[in-house]
Amino acid sequence: MDKLMVDSRGKATISNDGATILKLLDVVHPAAKTLVDIARSQDAEVGDGTTSVTLLAAEFLKQLKSYVEEGLHPQTIIRAFRTATGLAIKKIKEISVTVKKDNIQEQRELLEKCAATALNSKLIAGQKEFFSKMVVEAVMSLDELLPLKMIGIKKVQGGALEESQLVSGVAFKKTFSYAGFEMQPKRYDTPKIALLNVELELKAEKDNAEVRVKNVEDYQAIVDAEWDILYDKLEKIYKSGAKVVLSKLPIGDVATQYFADRDLFCAGRVQEEDLKRTMMACGGSIQTSVGAMTDDVLGQCELFEEVQVGGERYNFFKGCPKARTCTIILRGGAEQFMEETERSLHDAIMIVRRAIKNDSIVAGGGAIEMELSKYLRDYSRTIPGKQQLLIGAYAKALEIIPRQLCDNAGFDATNILNKLRAKHAQGGMWYGVDVNNEDIADNYVACVWEPAIVRINALTAASEAACLILSVDETIKNPRSSMDGPPGGAGRGRGRGRPHAH
Predict the structure, then answer these.
(1) Is the pTM for the entire model greater than 0.70?
(2) Where are the beta strands (DSSP E) in 268-325?
(3) Contact criterion met (CB below 8 Å) for 361 and 116
(4) Are 324 and 339 in contact (CB under 8 A)?
(5) pLDDT tens digits for 158-200?
(6) Which tens digit of pLDDT belongs to each residue from 458-477?
(7) How many Cα atoms occupy the beta-carbon half-sphere of 267 within 13 Å?
(8) Which of 117, 225, 375, 423 shows a CA-CA span of 20 to 30 A to 179?
(9) Closest C-alpha to 449, from 380, 362, 377, 342
(10) What angle do CA 448, 354, 47 make, to 5 degrees?
(11) What angle do CA 326, 331, 337 make, to 5 degrees?
(12) Would you tell me the crossing angle of helices 367-380 and 400-409 to the nearest 10 degrees?
């Protein structure tokens, strides 16, 4: 289920990504802030499983509450939890399935399944086939380091979700343009591309310097010099052989007209990240002066064109020789919907990156949690003392994930969990919740897969947070902070305090 959050300015956000929700909530409680932190760390480290990690931490604390109230020492509990987490992680590593990387087709199919699992719980679950292919294609086009910044995501309102497209290369929105822009060609084959950080605009003298002149001729000479400087820059760019000129700073109307007359395309005020991505894709380097416009600093691509996408115009650079970058153009109706789609794709991209780097996977849909729960419950029966109860509590807490999955899908959680417990006891290791048929199924066969690192990270972070909150035995609050509260807070009590001496 999704949550709708409205901030103080009235901006609405619809999301079911745990990290996004917790980031937008103004959490004040110090213990609750640790839950926000673990969700953020999970988002940064793995990208998905942010809701799971918060749920697990909360459930751990819930299971332990009765023990703490009975007077069990927190350090005993923390020791037991650390043991249980260690055992769980060891078990995940034992049973996870390693993917063979030698067959590219097989690896691609596996990555698509991991992406589809990540998209299952999102708003765009209906189009998961379409988007999982797109995400895998996008990540596969990056270099070995898989830098996230090299995948650009642009949102264009209007159209259907299926009209979203992946551009292998760079695409960015048409920048602000001056008169003469429409006369420039909008398509080139194998153009050279100049990437600049230079302002091609006439500057008003008063902004830059103070010049004292005696007569009009001197003033005219200054104005002419300025025009000469600008034309000299433009001449050098033209002679370099570049056909597409991109600059981070403004390109004025004189320059736009000059380029239009000579069949060049120019775009000023290009965002820095777009300019950098163009450089990574097309080669060349960003120049801060036009003095040395040689061939090695110019980029190149097979096709440059300006295309209408919905109500916006986009500049596309396709067939880039050094293309280790790509752009996803998202279409959709409501703005919030597109933002949520972008967040969902971010999760899927992160998961695919993780699956490429760490090649072991486990079955999702609550299967791995049920298996760990069974394993820890069996283990707890072999040890004496308080640890037995606590590891049993840890095992019970793990069942929150399949239980929550059942609740979200509108199933009877108790019924399905009983079936799962029975199946896992009989050795059905990968059995989890089957959301489509309101039953249980072998999720490994059903291809509901996720990287093992997601689960390892979630368990570690959740038990760390639970132990951290447990180890606190006293909260000390700065007394002044209650006095510095908002005005009007004082005087609302029951009148038992003494009046202040003025």
Answers:
(1) yes
(2) 299-300, 303-309, 312-318
(3) no
(4) no
(5) 888 888 888 888 888 888 888 778 888 888 888 889 998 888 8
(6) 999 999 999 999 988 888 87
(7) 24
(8) 225
(9) 362
(10) 85
(11) 115
(12) 140
In angstroms, the CA 405 to CA 411 distance is 9
C-alpha to C-alpha distance for 422 and 414, rounded to whole angstroms: 12
Q: Directed axis angle between helix 413-425 and helix 367-380, to 10°?
A: 60
Say if strands 244-247 and 169-173 run parallel, antiparallel, or are unpaired.
unpaired
The answer to whether 437 and 451 are in contact (CB under 8 A) is no
Query: In the numeric block, which tokens belong to residue 72?
Result: 């069990």
Are 61 and 469 within 8 A, CB to CB?
A: yes
> Under DSSP, is residue 387 helix (H, G, I), strand (E, B) or coil?
helix
Residues 454, 90, 60, CA angle at the centre, nearest 5°? 65
Instruction: Look at residue 483 in the predicted model and tell me its pLDDT.
Output: 54
Half-sphere exposure (Cβ direction) of 58: Cα atoms closer than 13 Å: 14
**Distance between alpha carbon 324 and the CA centroid of its chain, in Å?**
19
DSSP H helical segments within 240-271, as ranges? 253-261
Positions in the chain short of pLDDT 70? 203-209, 322-323, 480-502
DSSP string, 172-232: EE-----TTGGGS-SEEES-EEEEE---BSPPPHHHH-----SSHHHHHHHHHHHHHHHHH
Spatial separation of the C-alpha atoms in residues 277 and 243, rounded to whole Å: 18
The tokens 């793990």 sit on which residue?
398
| Order of strands across the sheet that contains 165-167 | 151-157, 326-332, 165-167
Q: Which amino acid is at 304?
A: F
CA–CA–CA angle 411, 416, 419 (5° rounding)? 165
> Rg (Cα) of the chain, in Å, rounded?
30
Q: For residue 428, what is the DSSP state?
A: -
- Under 8 Å CB-to-CB from 63, ≥6 apart: which residues? 393, 394, 396, 397
In this structure, are residues 175 and 224 in contact, taking their beta carbons and an 8 Å threshold? no
Rounded distance between C-alpha atoms, residue 334 and residue 280, angstroms = 32
Tell me, what's the pLDDT at 396? 93
CB distance 358 to 451 below 8 Å: yes
Residue positions annotated with a catalytic role: 17, 50-51, 347
Distance from the Cα of residue 219 to its chain's centroid: 55
Residue 13 token pair: 């956000």
User: Who's near 323: CB < 8 A, 6+ residues apart?
Assistant: 141, 168, 169, 281
| Predicted local distance difference test score (pLDDT) of residue 491 | 46
